[in-house]
Amino acid sequence: MIHKTAIVSNKAEIGPDVEVGPYSIIGDRVSIGRGTTIGPHVVIKGPTTIGEHCRFFQFCSIGEIPQDLKFKDEDSELVIGSNNTFRECVTINRGTAGGGGKTVLKNNIFIMAYAHVAHDCRIGNNAIMANNVSLAGHIHLDDYAIIGGYVGIHQFVRIGSLAMIGGMTGVSKDIPPFTIANGQRATLHGLNLTGLKRAGFSPETIRELKTAYRLFFRSGMTIKKALEQIAAEGLHSSEVRKLVEFIQNSERGVARE
Fold first, then answer.
1. Phi-psi region at 241: left, alpha or beta (left = phi > 0; alpha = psi -120 to 50)
2. Any idea what the CATH number is for the domain that residue 39 is in?
3. Residue 153 phi, psi dihedral angles, 5° rounding
4. Is 148 a known active-site residue?
């Protein structure tokens, strides 16, 4: 299952049924789980841990040192879960001491061609990144976040779960869960209603989210006043709480309409 032209370190751990294509290089301290496929001309450096049934297309660069001038060859790592797909020329860097020393991608992630994941990023389950997306360091993508093509995201930004960002958008502030953002500098454009319906959210939950969104972003209220009104209207679903907590805990501030 390992092509004769591939170079695989004797310090790498290769699970059962792993395929390594022509001219690929697997370095020291790399662990690859069962059923993962490594295409041709892929480079994976350690310390990197990869789960089961992932697929790396040609020319991916995985686990390389961070593009960070503060990096001083400290011991850091990349951790990738299972059932992830990385298309052509995807680059993913290891963590840094300043960001906890670890870049983490969870499960069922789809990253399209030429996308970049920088040091210390955290990507949740079922996230999708389209072609040429560029994540700076320390970014968090929550579960089911969808990022359109050619999007650039500033370091330390967080993208909430089921948020959708339109193509060619520059993101410098946090994007709340369940919302749509777009523009040269990302602004909100309402809830991701199609995504909510496809995810099986009930009409009552969507109604509550619509009300909470209106209070936060269209009423002219301060966040404090909007929170008081949300409580007064009895909006207590777990999804509204998730939206509220995201806004309350935002360190960069959230994008607005």
1. alpha
2. 2.160.10.10
3. -120, 130
4. no
C-alpha span between 211 and 236 (Å, rounded): 12
The identity of residue 232, as a single letter, is A
**Given 27, 51, 68, 120, which residue is catalytic?**
120
Identify the domain containing residue 226 by its residue range: 195-249
Q: Are residues 220 and 126 in the same domain?
A: no
- Closest CA relative to residue 36, chosen from 187, 26, 227: 26
Quick check: pTM over 0.90?
yes
Per-residue pLDDT of 185-235, as tens digits, reads: 999 999 999 999 999 999 999 999 999 999 999 999 999 999 999 999 999
56-74 burial code (b ≥16 CB/10 A, e <16)? bbbbbbbbbebebeebeee
**Of 41, 116, 119, 138, which one is the catalytic site residue?**
119
Active site residue 120: yes
- Which residues of the chain, if any, have pLDDT below 70? none
For residue 152, tell me if it sits in a domain.
Answer: no
The answer to whether 137 is a known catalytic residue is yes
Which member of 137, 148, 160, 195 is catalytic? Answer: 137
